Every structure is written in C-alpha cells, then in structure tokens.
Hints:
Blueprint (H helix, E strand, L loop, with lengths): L2 H4 L8 E2 L14 E2 L5 H12 L2 H4 L11 H20 L8 E6 L6 H15 L7 E8 L2 H9 L4 H5 L3 E5 L8 E3 L4 E3 L8 E6 L8 E6 L2 E8 L15 E6 L8 H10 L2 E6 L1 H10 L7 E10 L2 H6 L5 E4 L1 E3 L2 E2 H10 L3 E6 L5 E8 L9 H13 L2 H14 L5 H10 L4 H14 L5 H17 L8 H12 L3 H13 L8 H17 L6
Parallel strand pairs: 3-4, 3-8, 4-5, 8-13, 13-16
Antiparallel strand pairs: 1-14, 2-10, 6-7, 9-10, 9-12, 10-11, 13-18, 14-15, 17-18
Amino acid sequence: MSEIANNPYPQTNDLVAATENRPNSRVLEFYRFSKSPIWQLQRNFFEDQGEKAWQESIVPHYVTSNPVMAATYVEMLMAFWQDEISNGNIDLNKPVFVLELGAGSAVFSYGMLYQLNLRLAKSALKGLKLVYIISDIVQANLNFARNHEKLQHFINNGQVDIALVNAEEAQQLHLQISNKTIGQQQLTNPLAVIANYVFDGLTQDLVSVNYGELLEGYMALPEEEMQQQNFVKQPLYDWRELPEDHDYPQLLLEYYLKHLDDNPVLIPTGAINTLKWLTAFSSLPTLVLSADRGVCSLSQLRRQTRPGFANHGSFSLPVNYHALSVLINNQGDIAMNCQRRQNSLALSVMVLNSTQCNNSFSNTRAAFERHIEHFNPDDAYGIKRALEQTAHLLVPQEMLSFLRLSHWDYRILDLFYQPLIEQIQYLQPDECIQWTDALERIWAQYFPIGDRVGPCLHLGVLATELGIWSLGIECLSAALQLHQHLNIDEYTIEQIDFHMALCEFELGNIKK
C-alpha cells in the first residue's frame, strides 16, 4: 500500500513553519498572499503532470474519492433533489446537472455515477435526466477521463459531459462532448456542485488580528525554492497595515476583529469567488458539497499560528470553512460543517440561493445529520486505519461485513487479500456465493487509473480461486494493459499469466 494511501492528511512535520528572517538567503519580492507567484506555479505543476499526478501517487486522493464518500454525497444529492421537487423547482423533462470541480483522475466521478445510477433506479426520481459534468483546469485530465473504458457507457447514454474550468473565474461552462455552452442564468433546474480537495489549492489571502488592529499578510520565497517541485518550504512573511481601499469581505474582517485577539487568518478568496460564479447560472438554489482539510470553528482559528502548507508535489492550505459559513449564513443561506477533530477531514454542505424558497430544506438537513454527523467518510477512514492492523485476525464473514460497510471499497479488499487467500479453500457454498457477489460489486465500482497493479491482480486471483472465470480474465487483463508503465516484476507477471491461462482453459479457450 502506498505511503500516500496511509497518510492522506499532512502530518505535523509536513506543515511548513514560516520564518520572519533568514540571513544569507536571496528572496524574491514580497507579494500580497493571494498575488504570490506560488499560485501560478501550482497551476503549472498540474498542467505539467496531467494524470501522472495521480498515477504516480504524487497527489493524495483516496480520502475524498472512496466509495463511502460517494455514497454520502449520493444521499445528499437525493435529499436536495427531493426538497427541490417539493419547492417546484425541478422539471423532470430537463437535464439536472451535477458539476464536479477539479475532477483530476475522474476516480470520484466514476464512483458517483455508478452509485447515483443504482440509487436513482430504485427511487421515485428514476426519471431524472442526470448530466454529470467532469471538469478540471487541465485538458489532459479531461482527455484521460473521456477515453477511459469504464466511462464510455455513461458518455454514450448522455449522462457525462466534460468541461475545462478554472474554478476561480469561470463565467460559462462549455461542454466538450455535446458542444453546448451554459451561460449565466441559463439553467432551468437547480445545480449541484462537488468540490473535493479543490478549495485548498485555490488562492487565499492572509490577514492577522492583533488586539483590535488588522494587518495584511505578504509572503516571499527564497529564489532557490521556486525552482523545486515541493517549492513552499520556508516562506517568509511581512505584515503591513491594511489599506483603506482593500477588497477583503468587510463582514469577515469585522467578525474576526470582534472574536479573535492575536491570530493570523486565511481568507479563502478563491473559494469565495467560486461560490459567486456558481450561483450565477441560475436564480434557483445551488447545492455545494465539499471535503478538504480545513478549519470549521472559532476555537480552531484561535489555535492557528502561521499558514500550514502541505507539500505533495503541489501544495495545499487548510480551507477556512468557518469564514465561508459566516458569509453564507449572513445572506440567509445554509452552511453546515462537520469535523471530528483538529486536522481531520472537514465536510461542508452549502445551499446557496435558498432564501427564495419557502421550504426549509428539511430533507437536506436530515440527510446531513444522518450521513455526515452520525457516520461519515472520515469515520470510515478511521475504520480502514484500524483494519490495517487487524485484518489478519478476521474470518471471511467478518471481512464481508466490513466490505459492505465500506460500500465495496477495493482498498479494504486489499487489506483482506492475504488472509482471505489462506482461508478461501475452506469457504462453504453459501459463503462462495456471497464472495462472488462481493468481487463483482468491487470490480464494477473500481476505476483503475494505472497507479497500482495490486487491485486488478488481487481481484483476478480471487475470482479465479472462486471459479469466476470471465471476471478473472477481465481483471487480470486490466492488470497487464493498464500498468505497463509501472515495470511490473516478473513474479507478478507469472501470477497473472498462470491465472489467465487457468481461466482460459476452464472456459474452453485453450486445450490442456
């Protein structure tokens, strides 16, 4: 299992502490935080890397792209749509759009589409004309998604489109597959938006409250760091008097002056701009679902010192969901946040343009309580971490229980692979039926991007052991075809060849 998968959250020693002065170091000019060159370097990184950023495990994605996260968001979408049907705002004869920002490798896009279709088929909303827009700032990522075999079914039936989108300044959405453009005030149904691991990479500003005074944060980096991949290592800060003609949200400044004493505060400028343009497509309510590392409360802000940059090829900063909530709630809209502990995953549900509805979005609020406050993807990740230490102690029926709880997560199966192989010959007939169903569900939901050969190999070997010959061939073929760039070792290739030959023989495709 990759280091990224084990440590998706930046640890304390990954957070870059800034220094006020560092002698004998050449520095660039100090810039207002949101005007620093680091933001363009961030974009350059993703454009240069394309899908390799995920294939080579440079950028973490599992925590916000797993099946439990998809299941949680599906329930939030269903509840929001039910509220909007009650409000009379959904025309079932028109498309209902879900826009995913910063989709990257499209792993989560596929998981959402897979689970949404299952959920819609068994609901009163099965006639909903879903169009899921996979968007990113990098065209190479969109090309990767558009050409991926597992997305072709959804593309062919009109449920998927793609769009090149700069999340901070988009004025319209050009859909590349249908060749249509969505402009301001053109949507006739409510828009739903997904922004996982997006806001933490958008531009931010930095201010500091100093006992009734506000200062504006400026930053510079040593010149040698600007040439490196993990380039935000030892930033230097300068604090200046806030100009009278500043463009910061005055409401936020007044709020933090009142409630903080001596604390720096990140202002999520990019996220604020994103929320503004998202609501311009329609006067109808807009649902925004977001998960990221961030801060959700004043108590967290009071403990905050300097910005905590996390480096992973690119960089990220914690999202000030508290600031977004202050702004959203002030305009009468809805913002609900959940974060279990300091530095853990923050989940946010926002309903914008909601004030014109008589409905209080009771279904959406209830879904938030049930699927985020009670048990959420961060809890599921905690279970996964526990299983990393205890998986070898479980029997197959217990493994199945955890797989069901994970919504058939292939990474959970990875943890069970070795102990399951050791016990598979002792499975009873009814257990074999259950495991056959489990493997088929896991493979149906798995979206290989070429980062790890293990999932395809493990699924293929287990399918062969259970006599699911066609599934074995499909998984093992994918193990070879999608991972050639990884320089697969000879032992793994021998495993694949042996089990492929066994499947082909049992299907009568080769003679003894």
